[in-house]
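Table 4 source record.
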Amino acid sequence: MVANLFYAGDLYGSFLLHTLSVYHLPSGAIQLPVAGHVSLESMERQIVEFEATVVLATVTTMSQLSESILSSGKSHPYVRLLLFSGEAFYEDQAGLLKAAFPNATIRSVVYGSMDCGIIGLPPKQEHYTNDPRLHQVNDPSIIVEIITEDGEVTATPGEAGSLVVTNLERQLMPIVRYPSGDRAAWVDPALGLFRVLDRDRTAIRLGPVSVDFVDLRRIVSTILRDRPVGRLQAIVTREDRKDLLTLNVAFTPATDEESSQLQAELREELGVVRPMFREHVDKDLINPLRIKFVTMQELAVNPRSGKIVENWQRNRSMSEITAKGSRQAGPGKEDKATGVLAPWGEPAWFHALESPYYNDSHRRFQTYVRDFVDTHLLPYAQEWEAGGEAPLSARLRFAKSGLAFLDVPKEYRPKELMTVAGIPFDKLDVFHELILMDEMARIPSGKRRWLPGLFTWETSFCLAITEPTAGSDVSAIRATAEKTPDGRHYVVNGRKKWVTGAPWATHMTTAVRMGEPGRSGLSLLVVPLNSPGVTIRKIHNSGHNAGGSSWVVLENVKVLADHLLGKENGAFPIIMRNFNKERFILTVDCNRQARICLSEALQHAHDRETFGKPLASNQIIRHKLTTLARKVEAHWAWLEQIAYHVHIHGWQTKDVASRIALAKIQGGRIVEQAVRESQQIHGGMGYEKGVTMTEQISRDLRLKVIGGGSEEILSDLAWREEHKRASDRGAKL
């Protein structure tokens, strides 16, 4: 009985390849198609119940299953054979597999790919050894070559290089020196015997320092010796404006003392093997090596195949070509702005057109914000979205960055935050805010909504306006607040919906009714959320999972009378004053999200080949992209015009509300079209979670269009406001 744990579904071809390989085993076998998407507990249960004696899986799945089995104090001695394929096998993984399956022999079942076909099989009986990495070419139509680092073909046994394949039978799609993605070495070229060593392109860059993944594995093997290690994963991020290498090791130390000792020994050994790494750490040019002992389940895997991603550059977002370069921004001025180099990947002032709105301080500010987002937010965005919240440490870091609450008056700001990116607080203008809005919108799901609160996070606020029966129509609010006979408290009753950030807030600014129906009877109260009678329940929306969108029920909640903001029944103008800026933020968000979709689609159109030519060579694809580009660029120019008006006259001038309302409608329409066209160009990849940011944006889209006022409400608002202004100017309509 063979338990087949290979992934089906998206990779059905891979599942089929390994299913067929079982039919060619020397002895007959019954196949149990478990597939790799089921839980580890289910895998183990089926292996036990059906008495499988052979397990067929990727090395990653086998290692995860072995770890799960050992964690429950069990082993399965009746399994006689472990057959792997699909990724490199390392000698130090054998200990983990042997502990869970003590009587099993470890062998490869096939070495190949869906593009190349079968490249090699386990050696024939007369050449068989106990090395599971050994394979033999047994098809005369397959030519295997090993290319050294200097580009030469080698036939020298033991000399490592990149393995490439030529398939003489493929004609419809020729396979000529196709890279397998692995490093290998010949054992006996005449017999077609070769050994698969590890993944190709294993160099990890940290500033000017290169660290080879092979060296990291050798260091771990040296220090951990005979201990059973699952897999390794190298993750490169940015911290404190320096590159940081985190090495995740799938191993559980017996004690905290052992963990600390092993970490110190691993760091020391890396300094011996790569002295340049230690020198650059000493010079404070890169961060020291960070080591984490984790479980196999905690290692990042490819969401489609389940294979470990060994070298993960988490400080680069999907489909982005980024650079920190410069161009001349005028006589003698260097442009320090950081951005995407591909066409239309950034607003025009970044790389192309001169602008009267921006100066060197804006470029410095943009670089600072981009670096913060790329280092501290973007690498973890999907993780936080899946978990439903950002950790407190991330919220605190944002609060202390100086980027939070740029509109908090100077007298209330901590002394250490009187400058941001080296710019005095009183020199920051609306275009610095526009840059911040645009940069924060690069994070999927509008993660700036994770980061409300004040500078120390001891006090944090959320805003509760919307109710089940009152959305865009604020004047229909039903929540009530009645003053107690002694005048010291208000008693609040009502229900609020879609309150962003409520699970982590300490206080809620709440719209309540104290007077007559309509807008003139509304007031604002600050409700402490630890008060008796407050119930918070998270709402599970299609997108924005980490925004903390919640129901808040208020039942006879007593609030001190001095928590009233402004005067009784005077809240409506205060609420309306906030809407202009909120809607402007949302429309900037729409523009950036549309630009992300455009950038991803453009990059994919250049990378993807269909029928022998790039997608971008098709006129209809180019037309889709340039149509999006002209709409995104025109919308951004409109936003800059509005921002300049606000810069001169402020957020509450009579002329600005209708313009912002129309710009928000236009932004929503553009991002809707951008999502559609990007997903069309990506095909199935555009619908798959974790592959593109476009897919995440598609789930968050409705909130951008509805939030801050629906399209229908805003259209009517713009009509009324513009007709009112026209009448004031003397127009006869």
